[in-house]
Design goal:
The protein has 227 residues and is mostly helical. It starts with a helix and ends with a helix. Helices cover 37% and strands 0% of the residues. It has 2 domains: 100 residues, Cytochrome Bc1 Complex, Chain D, domain 2; 85 residues, Cytochrome c-like domain (Cytochrome Bc1 Complex, Chain D, domain 2, Orthogonal Bundle), CATH 1.10.760.10. The protein is built from 9 helices and no strands.
């Protein structure tokens, strides 16, 4: 069957609310800070092969409905459903209120369709990735390559810190290497239990950026003139 015909059949067979949920997923107005779900999460299985070239902090949501748990809640005590788990992102990283009614249902329905057709494909289970270090001046973050860091910056950081300046996030140009490493690894400080008011940045754990990549990124940001 022609791919276009197959796609049309698939879309026409989508459960009610899926299209509305897809729009919510890509809507920067879902929260209060202009950050859409799609800014932190891809929806494809292989980001390196099928992604859009961006390097997001969050893992892809391909197959998310089949994961045994969400956000490290292995016993599902905090997040008993996919809708419960999405509320965490909406509140903490998008500055919004918990979704209600049709919005809550439709977003969960859309996420449940991601990877659904490929039943043999294993779900992508999040690995522990958050790191709160006591010393970001350690050698592992020093001596990075600014040229490699530049490429990483435009993949991972430019959307919120355009050219190192103010955007959805604050200006970062000229920050020290240790400051950049801490910001990347800890994000808004939530993992230390001391989140700053109005801070939305997610943390990039080891499964998203290696120590060498963080060092390269920090070297590039530190090389930028302060704005």
């Amino acid at each position: 069957m022609h791919p276009a015909i197959l796609l049309a059949i698939t879309l026409s067979a989508a459960p009610p609310g899926v299209d509305a949920g897809r729009r919510l997923f890509n809507d920067p107005g879902l929260g209060k800070n202009g950050i859409a779900c799609a800014a932190c999460h891809a929806t494809v299985k292989d980001e390196a092969k099928d992604g859009d070239g961006l390097l997001r902090a969050g893992h892809s949501l391909f197959g998310v409905a089949r994961r045994p748990f969400w956000r490290g809640d292995r016993e599902r005590r905090l997040h008993r459903s996919l809708a419960d788990a999405t509320d965490v992102c909406v509140q903490i990283f998008q500055g919004g209120e918990p979704l209600e009614g049709a919005d809550r249902t439709n977003l969960a329905r859309y996420l449940s369709t991601l990877g659904r057709a490929k039943k043999r494909s294993p779900a992508l289970v999040l690995q522990p990735a958050l790191e709160a270090d006591l010393d970001y001046d350690r050698p592992q973050y020093q001596g990075g390559d600014a040229s490699r860091g530049r490429a990483l910056f435009y993949q991972a950081c430019h959307a919120c810190h355009p050219h190192g300046g103010v955007g959805l996030g604050p200006a970062v140009a000229g920050l020290g290497v240790a400051e950049v490493a801490q910001a990347v690894r800890e994000g808004n400080g939530l993992i230390r239990g001391s989140r700053k008011a109005g801070a939305w940045m997610p943390a990039y754990g080891q499964t998203r950026l290696s120590d060498d990549q963080v060092a390269d990124l920090a070297a590039f940001v530190a090389s930028l003139p302060k704005k």
